[in-house]
Amino acid sequence: MLPRLQRFADVLVGEKREGKALLRRALHLMLAEHHRYQRGTPLDRFAFTEIYRVWLGELRDHADPLRQAKSSDEDFDRLFPKDRGADLDAFTATFLGQLPPQQRSTLLLVYGEGFDYVGAAKVLDSDADTIQARLIRASASLADRLSSGSPARKKASSTIVTLYPAEAQEYDHDRAQ
Amino acid sequence: MTELSDELLVAYVDGQLVREQTRSVEKVLEHDDVVARRVEALKDAHGRFESAFEAILAGELIEILAAPVLPPRPKRKRGNGLAKIGIAVVGIGIALAVLVRGYSWPLVLRACSVTGPVATMQDAPAKAQSAPSAY
Q1: For chain B, what is the domain count?
Q2: Burial zone of A83 (CB within 10 Å; 0-12 exposed, 13-18 middle, 19+ buried)
Q3: CB within 8 Å of chain A, chain B residues 64-93
């Protein structure tokens, strides 16, 4: 489970070194406050929740949380092992790196960890509708970028109304939280 | 031509729709190429997200496996407990012997000079026992 927790912390923070430090702090806190664990709760969900709680708590202490939450593309690219060579999807990696942390971690929990919307919402202290909105926004945005330029997509764009803007960097209500 | 929102299509791709909704979407997909292409694009995005997160996890595993494993701390060898106890008992015995013999001897002599030899020999042990506390 440790690699999964490390991945969650890394993706949330957007870089490896800070992610490792976050996980260490969260694990210390979990040990110190183990009474918070409720019997019956899946251990991975509890751990993900605690990591997110620590990250959010520390972020709120900063004078400029939004700036603090940003990570560089280079730092995020380092999360991907270099020896995978051709397997690395640089386009998707860059896309993920440009997303806000909450949206990135939502994608990880649902598409990487297999959580359902409700489970992901519990980890991220949110609700299922917000989780769904984040997924739609990210998926539609990447799908638009992947199919942009193809004639089929141009035709499609005239018939299907996309609920969310194509640009991942556009307004995200998560940033306002 | 049927218009389906991304909200519905993403839920379909993620398998979050109930059976009836899934069937309805599939019926549309059968005869609407535009919606079908959109679903394919969303599935492609979904698959890319999954692959990206798998790649990150693979990196974490590689890193953890490559991390040097610290050798276990050598356990302190415990000596023979009985031997230690024996040594302690002998030490205490020697200490008591020195205490009784070494310190009581002058007191016995002093007692002899004051009260006489017979009475001293009878009283000496009791005085000797109280002698250490005087020091």
Answers
A1: 2
A2: exposed
A3: 64
